[in-house]
Amino acid sequence: MSWSGSLNGRMCPLSASLRRPIITAIVTILPQPVTAPLTTEGIAQHILDHGYFILENAIEQTLCDDLMTEIERLEQCAAPRSLDNDFHGHRTTRFYDVLNLGDVWQKLPVHDSILPVARAVLGEDCLLNTYGTSIINPGETRQRMHVDDGPFLGGGNKRFGGGNISLIHRPRLYDDGPRVPIILNTMLALCDFTEENGATRFVPQSNLQPYPRRNGPDEWYERSVPAVMSQGSVLFFEGQCFHGGGDNVTNRRRYAVTVDYCAGFLRSQENFILSTAKEKLRAFNDDLQQLVGLRTSRGGLGHVYHHNPDDLQKHVAMATTPIGPERE
Q1: What domains are defined for the chain?
Q2: If you write DSSP's letter for every residue of 72-141 in order, what string do you get?
Q3: Distances from the Cα of 40 to the Cαs of 2, 3, 261, 319, in angstroms?
Q4: Which end of the chain is less congested by CB atoms within 10 angstroms, N or C?
Q5: pTM
Q6: β-sheet bridge partners, residue 154
């Protein structure tokens, strides 16, 4: 595998338990590639300093092929699409509730190229926040630049203005650095990403900026760059990084899957414990059970009578359906 980005910038401590063997890899500092030793901590630090990291050839070809086969199956089964709207796109195919579908979906959130980085950025008790496809079809237009911290920033008490003040004004990791991270999203390329087919666009070091406006002119789009990368590569972008889908001006679809994580003290966007079939939950490995909330957090959050909520699943999880629950 190879890596895109630089490792310049100040270091802040990461958990010693997350150290990985040093890998000699290619770091692309445009326009000249150089060779550098990297660790999981190095990738996490680049994400903190710059808001993103592109990990080339992160996912094996067989897994990419299996995911593409599963997506084809979902479309043949007429699985319900989600989020057909002006913001998420009218020509973008989004399937969610994927952990209720084929077993292949259980592999990505716990993949060795992805989960260690998420834990290095957010903590060992991070949770799976939301998980689904992002297939940009021909003719889709650009998405407004936004941050994935957004849903957590607007959930405050209306008495105090409606915004979550404690998160909006949370402390920065170091002087002129980013706020403490609460979200890490990943975009897995299931085909080559090009600027023409709608590669996700992002603004480097925008995680250091004040949050962007939700309305009005989208001045950040012109300052963004496309995440051009090959099939099997992963774009990591922290929840404060300005990003959005690009225009697809080709006659081909841009296939991708997003795996989004949140800090362990937050309420995840998808309620996986309630939505996932009990047969599926029992079959998940330990890491995936922790990610969906079947383990208490580092501070003891999410317990059932001061124990892990493992046994709760047999009483509350949904029954298995062939393609997942219907949506409005």
Answers
A1: 2-316 (2.60.120.620)
A2: HHHHHTTPPP---BTTTBSSEE----GGGS-GGGGTSTT-TTTHHHHHHHH-TT-EEEEEEE-EEPTTPP
A3: 13, 11, 16, 38
A4: C
A5: 0.81
A6: none
Q: How far apart are CA 223 and CA 212, in angstroms?
A: 13
What torsion do the CA atoms of 274, 154, 188, 55 make, to the nearest 10 degrees? -130
Residues ≥6 apart with Cβ < 8 Å to 322: 77
Comparing C-alpha atoms, which of 202, 224, 207, 184 is closest to residue 9? 207
Q: In this structure, how many other beta carbons lie within 10 angstroms of the beta carbon of residue 7? A: 19
- Tell me the three state secondary structure of residue 280: helix
pLDDT band at 327 (very low <50, low <70, confident <90, very high): very low
What DSSP line would sit under 149-207, residue for residue?
THHHHS-S-GGGTSS-HHHHTPPBSSTT-PBPP-EEEEEEESS-B-TTBT--EE-TTGG
Instruction: Find residue 254's DSSP bridge partners.
Output: 136
CB 63 within 8 A of CB 136: no
- Give the model confidence (pLDDT) of 266-314 as tens digits: 989 999 988 998 889 989 999 999 999 987 777 767 766 556 666 555 5
CA dihedral 65, 70, 71, 73 (to 10 degrees): 130
244 touches 146 (CB < 8 A): yes
